[in-house]
Each structure stands twice: as structure tokens, then as C-alpha cells.
Amino acid sequence: MSEWLDGLRLSLVAGSGPALRSALNVLIILAAGWAALVVVRRGIRRFRAYMEGRVRDAEEAKRVGTLCRVFRYFGSVVITIVAAMLVMNELGISIAPVLATAGVAGIAIGFGAQSLVKDYFAGFFLLLEDQIRQGDVVSVAGVGGLVEEVTLRYVRLRDFDGHVHFVPNGEIKTVTNRTRDYAQAVIEVGVAYREHVDEALAVMREVGRELRADPAWGARILDDVEIIGVERWADSAVMLRCRLKVRGIEQWNVRREFLGRLKKAYDERGIEIPFPHLTLYAGQTKDGNAPAFRVHSR
């Protein structure tokens, strides 16, 4: 009886050896995967801090931050997949059939999710070519707003009303970036036909100089006001145009401040800013007489 028990004990110990070894290997793989994730994230964080310390342009710093987030996501996905495959192999699950099944499933999913693949490819080139950065004001796919997040899948925008838009990268055909490097604050105003155009333009130039000399606004304006001149003849006004070269995303603030100061300057000098009106003209006969209007009262 004792010999039978000794044999059973030896068989259990011998059988538990491979199981314990496999469990230990699985724990080692999981620990190594976790350590790799920590190393990758810390490495990317230090690389981002290093690059942000070297770049002088805030726009480049935003680009570095966007790319580092994408690299961190990609690295996490790769490490997780590799660790999962090693664990499956250690547990005795053959990887070859899994890879074959994944390949067939990938082809089937690829046909059904072409737009998803298109989004990822478009997102990769958006980041590679530095078309969009976090903090830019852009117009894409008929939607405009402030870029809050750029991923390989979508671009998240918040418009002036506070609405959030998620635009798939595959839907983006044209990117209009309104804040890259610098912008132009274009100002167009109308004066009455009786006003002297040169005088009105001189006031615009004066207001532009005063605005740039103001300490609160001078840092936002990169160059003197550029007077374009007469843009067109409207129904009730002569349209004048000028523009100011400003830092990115400041064009709207500078334009509002310029218009407010120009309105005050025109009022002080008596330059009329006309409102829409309609002039009735009855015409003249060949001898120069104009017929009288018929006015009926009830």
C-alpha cells in the first residue's frame, strides 16, 4: 500500500512540473510586457520633454505632442499583441491557426471596413505631413473649429458655439488651416459716395499705427497695416479694404478691435458710414425737367 502511495505522489509531482513551469513563464511574459509598456511610455514622455525644450516655436511643440501621443498608442498596441501571442504559445495554443484565421478575417473585415482603413491611412499622412496640430483653427469636411484632438481615426473639433464635431480622417479632402504661422486680419468698410476716399484711407492707416503702438495689441500684430484701397462700388457705399498681418488665431480679435477704433475715428472726423437706403429717381425729359411724383393720401 505504501509503495502505491509513493508512486502516486511521484506521478503528481512529475505532472505538476510542466504546469508550474508554464504558469511561471506566463507570469514572466506578463511582467515583461508590463515593464515594456512602462519603459515605452516613460521613454516617449522624456523624448517629448526633450523635444519641447529644444523647439522654439509653439506650433512645433504642439506637433511633437500630437505625434508622441500617436507613438504611445501604437507602441502599447504592439506590445499587447506580442505579449498575448507569447502567452497563447506558452499555454499550448498554436499561433499558426490563429494567425491564419486572423488573416482570413482581416481580409473579410477589410472589405467591410474600407472606410476605417481609409481613416487610419489618411490620419497617418495628416500627422506625417503636419497638416493639423492640436490648437489649430481649421475647416475640414465642411466643419470648422478649434482642434482639440488629432488621432489616426478622427479629428475632434469644437466650434464657436461650443459644439464638438468628430470628423473621420477619411472624409477629409481639403484642410484649411487658419492659424498656421501667421494670419491676415482683413478689414472691409464702406463710406458714403460723397466722402473723400484718400481721407478715409488715411484714417484707416492712422488707426492701424495706433493699434500697433498699443502695448496690449502690439505683440499680436506682426507688420504695419496694408492699405489695399477701393475694393468695389456697392449700392450705397464705396467699399474700402485693408489688412493686418497678425499672429495665428489673433486675426478675429484684432479685426474686432480695429473696427471699433475705426468707427470712433470716422465719427470724430465726420466721415459717414452709410446704412442701406434706396433712392427713387423719376428721370428727366430732354429739356431737363423732371416730372413730379404723384402722392396720394387717404
How many strand segments?
8
Strand content: 15-25%
Order of helices and strands: HHHHEEEEEEHHEEH
Low-confidence segments, given as residue ranges, are none
Q: N- to C-terminal separation?
A: 131 Å
Q: What is the mean pLDDT?
A: 82
Radius of gyration: 35 Å
Q: Using the coordinates above, name the CATH class of the largest domain.
A: Mainly Alpha
Give me the oligomer status. single chain
Would you tell me which CATH topology of the largest domain applies?
Helix Hairpins
Structural class from helices and strands? Answer: alpha+beta
Q: Number of domains in the coordinates?
A: 3
Percent of residues in helices: 40-55%
**Number of helical elements:** 7
Q: Which sequence of strands runs across the widest sheet?
A: 4-3-2-1-5
Most strands sheet: 5 strands, antiparallel
CATH architecture of the largest domain: Orthogonal Bundle
Instruction: Give the overall shape.
Output: elongated
